[in-house]
Protein 1
Amino acid sequence: MRVKALLLLATACGASAHTQSESDGPCLSIGAWNDLHGQIQPVELWVDTGTVPAGGVIALADSIADLRATKDIVVLLDAGDLFTGSLESTLAEGAPIIEAYRAIGVDAVAVGNHEFDFGPVGYTVLTAAPDAGDSGPLGKRGALRARMTSASFPFLSANIHLRNGASPGWPDFGPSTHVRRAGFDVGVVGYTTTETAVTTSRANVDDLDFISHAAASVAAEIRTLRATGASPVILLAHASLDGVLPQSLDQAASSDEPLHGELASLVAALGKDRPDVIIAGHRHAWMLGRIDGIPVVSSDRQGLGLARIRFCRNNHALDLLSIERIAVLAALPPRTELGRSVAARTAPWLAAVKASGDASVTTLPRECPMQAVDGTAGAEQVAAAMAANAKVTSPPPEVPVVALINAGALRAPLHKGEVRFEDLFRTFPFEITLGACATTRDGLLRIMHNALANPSAWKHLPFALAGAQITIAHADNGSPSLVRMELAGEIQPGSGIEPVWLVVPDFVLDGGDGFLEGVECTRTVRTGTRIRDVWREVLGNHPDECDSRRPHNITVRLRN
């Protein structure tokens, strides 16, 4: 059956759009979301009148119940990053999200980069033994395989292969699937960002290939789905665009500002084997637009949004009538039977972590943003905590220690007043650990230049430091550059070959964010010590240092 796009309407968050059309039987609504990151309960969403509870898988279930109440045939898809984030999901390695999705009736999910954050089964076991392989609970992906086995839906990615080109052979995993329901045959192809190898634990993916023949693999699955009767065909992609995201299907990119980024490159490489709609993720942002004419939509993060993609039959054609973006506002208690069912099924995990989540860490005298306008606040205290614990990395004697934390690991401010462990976990949701390596002063300079070359650095500092002070200048166009660097205790800059002991997250050691590109960093050390834990100790003893008002190790100024 051919798919014809008649009319596509973008709605404001929370609004609803309906298009009247003669339809041959019931219509199909595809409900989609992305980047849930283990969120079960609602978060506080800031609006112009204050905060409202929104998002979380329980509230998402209420919105899905509303979708089913329209009497459309409903198919439910998630574009990846299901598990890592909340305390209750992370400690249980995603088990409560699988339970919630079984209750909701999810049909398929894409494999996101953070699906690989957990190694073997057991939260305390970060990585597998070198000879563990990939089978059994103690294998390098034991936790993910356990979640796949317990799921009632497939995990999809066409571009994940072993390095020898073979399929991984995981349970309930494949490149694509048919979702056949009430006369509809929805083809779904999965795609995982090619950045996965440097945006999760490298040890858990070092035998996988996300890049080779990625577009060809997606195109082949689209071709096969169409040949076997699927219509529509959906690309469920844990990937996105770069830069400012489109927010309207009528928003055409100007000739001097074409859409760019991973999804744009993928679509360009697909040739004639193109999906009817792309459901995207990874950027944690609302998006609605077209990539070379193909509609693309994403729905923020943590269940804050739900996309509704509606198809109806008309004279043997399948018409794409509308795409809506719906804000998921939470009702306490849940207002639908489905919401109450999901709440009941996830309650044991919430109860299991309540005592540890409520444990008091400290009391902050004032708000602590992770980054201040003129430098860093909370992020810098994390770097200081890393430096204070450098002894576990066995630094060489008489060598200056510099600690660096990638700011992307820190996701939320800490608020004035009591800080509980759950608050700390929400701010620092990733299981990255303390590592170190030997470099030089010139190597550290190269790291600074690499970090500032990232486009995100134009708006937000991508790192925080301890053991060194730097000055950054912004040009009139907003681009940052390094003006000065001074190591702690340094009287005057040396020749550049002086040794530096660099303390960083294992994520950075493994190539994350490209900080170490072109940098010689030897004598690598991995400790297995979670950085969140060392920050917890320092924050508890020195809450006044988490302060955006005090002098920072990074000074930012406008270039004269």
Note: The chain has two domains: 3-352, 359-558.
Protein 2
Amino acid sequence: MTEGSKQQAQIVSEQIAGRLHQIFDDLIVVEKLGGMDDVAVEQRFLTRAFAALSLLNHSDANASDAAESITDGSNDDGIDAVYVSEAHKKIYLVQSKWLGNTQKGVQLHEFTRYRDGVKRVLNLAWDEKNSDLHKHRAKIEFLLKDIDTEIVIIFAHNSEHELSEDIIRAKDEYLGEVNKYGDLASFFEFTLREARETARSRTRPENINLSLMLKNWGLIERPYKSVYGAIAGTELVAWVQAHRERLFAENLRFGIEKSEVNDGIRQTAGEEPTHFWYFNNGVTAICDEIDKQPVGGNNTDSGVFDVKKISVINGAQTISSLSRAAHEGANLNDVFVHLRIISLAGTPDNFSTDVTTANNTQNDLSPIDFVAADPNQDRIRREAIQMGLVYTYRRGDQDPSPESGFTVREATIAAACASGELRLAVSAKRYISGLWENTKKEPYTKLFNENTSAEWLWNAVRIERAVDIALEEKAKLLEGRERLVAVHANRFILFKVFEDVNEQIRAGYNIEELVTKIPALVQSKFGQLYKLVEDKFPDGYPGNLFKNTERQSELSIAVK
């Protein structure tokens, strides 16, 4: 590195420090503890503010959220900030290294302490060592129960040097370990380059300005200016890579997180790219201004538009799913998506709120809507009425109380776990809508057909509820990995319990008496399972392990 570039790095670092004060002076307060001079106070402020800045870049947090996420202290276990995005189902864990001299490098022991702190959080190992993180414990434990939760590991530093080979190796080894049975954690390095862009824009969504190309475009001038056309899927992916969640700041349902419809979007993009425009609902965005560049004149075959302060208000699932498909290696060159951009110039007060709300509450179909059209569902409902029960299977139906009836979701989980096929139990855990997508063929027809009776489903649901209650009560008494296994293995254990009781249910065995035996069965299955998990997969995160059919098959053979 030349002397000039070294000086440039120090100048940029000092510029960022100034902007950190502008953004966070009123939000991050550093107490001057005994022995701390003004230099030490400033160092601590910049360390904390830099951690918060990284969250502004990588998450949906605003400045206040980012400041409140700071955990930097004597008992932080190497983690300087924790931010939990319940909307995105993401847990952000940040380590911040603000160096007064940017020519210094980050040391291996600094990274490994942070890595080990992350490990302890994921294993729910709460003690004095990480007591500064305990205020986030409830939210972390709640999200870790969700199989779609993602962990975002952010290592922020202002060193002009790249991370050492030893740190890269330690990082890659840990990611390989934690992602062994499925994607759980991702790692981001937040450097001077990203920090400068973030500090300049403060990551506000209104600062996202784009130039984009639309094919077969059209223009609506009145009452409010709007344009529409087909945009390349690769261009949408580039938006996500550049702006991440900020692109969706005004989208009510976000969609950046994993979703039950995203597999279908990715499948179409990968297998039928030329059909994507026909099969997909498209994307809607709002902006402050939109202007067409002179190139191409009025020819509508293609046009380039400059868009100021853009925010996607509908279609976040489409964009994020395309981004994931590209990351997984799909070729998106032939994918085009219908895009509609509405300019807010000249619109009445609250128009942006109204148009966002309307675009997120109308014409929203999901796989459960197709289930409602299956005649077997109405037959089951009528049979349930004859039994004095309520069975609901349409969206909008009010769920019955547990003693008065059951829902199609409960029935699906119970039927899948009682099917004798572990793959269906795994689907019920990780992607229940996949069991509903096509009511004309398996797996749906294996669960719901002319031989599926309301009586059998009701009895199976009662077993399901008994297993859930037993596991919930057990989880309350457990800590760490053992508790995570109790949470994430619920469908696996239900599957194993059904192996024991299925014949008795079908033979008309007294269900009340059978339910009383469930806690003992759960205790036995869980005891065997936890020992096997610790023996076979000691480094595997339970949330990923119980999404993996192959690994569960190994466990299923051994659990009696």
Note: Residues 252-260 have pLDDT under 50 and may be disordered.
Protein 3
Amino acid sequence: MPNYQSPGVYVEEIVSGPSPIAGVGTAVAAFVGWTAQGEFNKPTLIHNWSQFITYFGGFPEPPLKEGELEQEESKPSSPASTSQAEAKAEEKPEEKKPEARKELRPTQATSPKTSVSYLAHAVYGFFANGGSSCYIVRIGEKALTKEEERRSPKAVAALGDYRAIARTGGSKANDTTIEVTSSDGGTSPEGMFKIVVKQGDVTEDLGTVTARGGEKTNFVTVVNEKSKLIRLERARTGALERRPAAGTLALRGGADPFPAHLSSADYVGDPVSRSGLAGLEAEDLVTMVCVPDLVAAFQNGSLNYDEFQNVQQRVIDHCENMGDRMAILDPPPGLNAQEVFDWRMNKANFNSKYATLYWPYLTVQDPVTSIKVDVPPSGHMAGIWSRNDDTRGVHKAPANEVIRGVLEPAVKITKDEQTTLNPVGINCLRTFPGQGTLVWGARTLSGESSWKYLNVRRFFNYLEESILNGTQWCVFEPNDPALWARIRRTISAFLVNEWRRGALFGATPGEAFYVKCDDETNPQEGIEIGEVVCEIGVAPVKPAEFVIFRLSQMAGGTSLVAE
């Protein structure tokens, strides 16, 4: 209390009630894997698909095959486009016939190796299904070989009526700029001007050139003969040779191929260097972790089966150690119902209340190749979790929800098959007539009956984090009954609001929860070592997983229907 010495009027502010606890966010996902471009091993928060295209390059381009390189180089494009779809529409590539979907066995890899990556599909599915924010961690930082650079998509830019194309492929060329400055004030369309090309620390001053054809100083001839960074070609036939407009433009569209030698260490990362999965330990907002590109690395032979399972176990370990997030796992590709059951029970044999598993894969249309591909479902499921949290709340099981942006499940599941899969924690994705493709399961991989439901585990994560963040004011307060009473009031007020939202089971708050913080939970021995113990018990709502109607014939007009 202040010590007043001078006569006068004073105003004091006092705490009139408990400090309110605000609920934490529950819908921030994290994706670890390969992208076509972007900074390596730095968790980057994005909020929509457009930002993913800007920072990480969108959907990856397939690698160029022999005989297609020159054809690709001569194909006109619109490099100034900011959208992949617009660029593809202007390039007008020749149509390809859809290819049959290939089934993969868990002990086999696709051959030959391809640059297939599922992370972009997962992020696209996340936002399409209601996701709002996610972290992207790009892995696979290795120098490209000459052959990989040759086959990788090249960065391009529009230079007047010409197209500037990087000499080498890969995202490194996206750092290339072309600076055009006028030497005669820009009064003549064929006048003299200068071209300077830069890429990182390399600068090429190509001197003074002209747009007049047939001369040695023609800018197309000079660039193609002297520059080691770019080359020029006509963007369209019949174009006039005019000088490009003065200014600076940047090349865009270069992409790296899927690394040929990804290891499990690339995914797991290192806590000291903040790389890979370990880099997410410093991000407190994350509540869901997905590693869809683990499947791509398994398919192209970068990882064997043991490494595939080891990375998944490390993802589970990460979530358990953090205690505030869930792992959404993808099974190996190409499994039928019996095989995925055998993998779950006898091979992977995961047992964790912080992990969940969805099957089968989802069939989507690849926007780059226009063929049907089976993608891991983890990204789409993370989006549905986010949508469910926004519309109903984290206490509601994220099931019986339509999966957006998919054609169908890769495997159609029967009721009898799900009867075998559901009890062991394999959440099935099923198609019902007239209802679309639905999420038809909401279980964790835990062997404990109290934690078998996904919404219960996620709701407890939400409660724990909310109470943790909302009671920081307690630290270093006097440890006495007044503090205990304030803690009880604060937490009780928060839980009453959760009960009113339908998150807790019970007709009254007293039936739904209890908060105990008194001299019984805080004996003198605990007070002496600076501890305050508050005991909280809650009754979470659990999903109506099995809805049963018992019907019988009516006797004498009396209804014997029991619900």
Note: The mean pLDDT is 83.
